[in-house]
């Protein structure tokens, strides 16, 4: 009998201990037991997760004068702020950009003050609400096409509440797009008589999109979305998807006439010696009515005859 009583006591203690542990875990995981924080709401999809500060990418037509709304949020288990909360913020430091560059091996630089105007440096999250928004007026025509520019914003103070540790600073990567920029379907005719392994003599449609990415006022690089790189699309002898190594097709346009005036390999130090040259006898142009691009060029490589590519880029939309 004593043994049975003793066993019952042990079982009861074990159950009590287990219940206590579950209660402790539930307290840790229960969001209702947390605290609200003052933070920047996500203005877009974060470019890369796990970075020191979140970075968001925005691209605008060079001739436009857009306004970018940015929201500061009272986030957490409480649905609304219990009182008015005044939040002050400022343009962040170069150190935040440097920190991001180090973590991601990038080369972002600070956006010039002449390229933007903040509508204010403080907002009030009203009692009974959870958000407040301000605007950034942008001047894409003043963006530097040669570099990747970032506007960092940092919350400096809040009259009440806790400032977020993760989203108190955000980085806005702001770029301009010229009129040739966009997402395209890629069609190409390959002519390479000394390379029979490649499909030649027939125009083929590449199964994945390509992009013309702005790299200057009238310059664009061909980006291959299949590889996530700038490889020129290639079709194998069996119709497979491939790409030419160490290639980055750079097209330059005449914005006045819409003619393609040059084609080159942006990888100037390609170890295989590949270069691109425009076929000056072809009609190379951008059609402003359809937004399509037509270009014929030669890819040369030591030891091979010139490889002729006649490409037709059919516009799908903006990127």
From TrEMBL:
Q: Which residues form a coiled coil?
A: none
Q: Does the keyword Glycoprotein apply?
A: no
Task: Name the Pfam families for this protein.
Answer: BT_3987-like_N (PF08522)
What keywords tag this UniProt record? Answer: Signal
Q: Where is the signal peptide?
A: 1-22
**Superkingdom per UniProt:** Bacteria
Keyword Iron-sulfur attributed: no
- Under what name is this protein listed? DUF1735 domain-containing protein
- Organism lineage: Bacteria, Pseudomonadati, Bacteroidota, Sphingobacteriia, Sphingobacteriales
